[in-house]
């Protein structure tokens, strides 16, 4: 399998159809759900016609169905399902640590595709869309607006940051932009009741992140999409492992003990991340870069 190292705007824009397969992302109110079951903003009186009932004192006269009233010779009003908006806010990690793969697409490409699928899902659902795309020294913030205004801009920035990694890769950044710093800058821009999706490998999840996320959780629904390469599950029990970085080649002779230690270390790290995020009330979704992204997102919906 040829590694996919970067992705362009045209490819991300072409995900519109696949986004329709994510039928429950983000979660929407089920028919008949009680008002107040989730925080949201109401969009007018709604557009879905539910039925008719007799006019009662206090009803809005604008809701009178004049055809039914004339036919039945008594006032009847039209009822509508209340439609509610759920803003979508995406956090997309495109730091150098995400530029890694051993099979299939890099973590950064997987994150770009997941974010674009959710952006298109907001388009289909007419939910306001906001995002922050960031790398090691820059971030692009898009406050929540209509998807017609924001979708193209968000996808352009996702593509721009993703493709920049190819040029940045040979050189380590002078200083990595911490996840906590990004969360601090955008926390106030996430609307109450938003569906907040963080797409990252969470390698620097720390106490500062937890404190900020605890505050966000009081206003929003948290979703963490932990993107990782599953090399640790595919390592042979013994043999030679080759790697290349910054033009340098290295070989490591694997033993059964080393393979076991690598697998245990990474598995433990992923479990600890999940525990810390789950304690904050976040829904945690593990995403393997070498597997079909849409199917994984459907399973976690």
UniProtKB/TrEMBL annotation:
<dbReference type="InterPro" id="IPR002881">
    <property type="entry name" value="DUF58"/>
</dbReference>
<feature type="domain" description="DUF58">
    <location>
        <begin position="53"/>
        <end position="274"/>
    </location>
</feature>
<dbReference type="Pfam" id="PF01882">
    <property type="entry name" value="DUF58"/>
</dbReference>
<protein>
    <recommendedName>
        <fullName>DUF58 domain-containing protein</fullName>
    </recommendedName>
</protein>
């Amino acid at each position: 399998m040829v590694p996919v190292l970067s992705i362009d705007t045209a490819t991300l824009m072409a995900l519109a159809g696949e986004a329709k397969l994510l039928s429950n992302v983000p979660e929407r109110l089920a028919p008949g759900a009680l008002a107040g079951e989730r925080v949201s903003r109401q969009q007018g009186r709604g557009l879905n016609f539910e039925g008719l009932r007799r006019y009662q004192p206090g009803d809005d006269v604008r809701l009178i169905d004049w055809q039914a009233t004339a036919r039945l010779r008594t006032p009847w009003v039209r009822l509508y399902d209340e439609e509610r908006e759920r803003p979508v806010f995406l956090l997309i990690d495109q730091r150098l640590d995400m530029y890694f793969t051993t099979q299939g697409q890099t973590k950064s490409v997987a994150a770009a595709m997941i974010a674009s699928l959710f952006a298109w899902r907001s388009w289909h659902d007419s939910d306001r869309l906001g995002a922050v795309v960031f790398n090691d020294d820059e971030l692009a913030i898009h406050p929540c607006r209509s998807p017609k205004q924001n979708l193209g801009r968000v996808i352009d920035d996702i593509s721009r940051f993703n493709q920049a990694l190819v040029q940045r890769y040979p050189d380590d950044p002078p200083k990595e932009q911490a996840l906590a710093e990004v969360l601090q800058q955008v926390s106030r821009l996430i609307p109450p009741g938003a569906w907040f999706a963080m797409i990252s490998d969470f390698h620097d999840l720390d106490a500062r992140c937890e404190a900020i996320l605890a505050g966000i959780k009081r206003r929003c629904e948290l979703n963490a999409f932990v993107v990782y390469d599953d090399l640790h599950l595919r390592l042979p029990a013994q043999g030679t492992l080759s790697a290349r970085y910054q033009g340098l080649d290295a070989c490591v002779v694997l033993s059964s003990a080393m393979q076991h230690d690598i697998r245990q270390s990474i598995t433990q790290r992923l479990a600890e991340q999940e525990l810390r995020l789950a304690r904050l009330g976040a829904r945690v979704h593990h995403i393997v870069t070498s597997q079909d992204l849409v199917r994984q997102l459907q399973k976690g919906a």
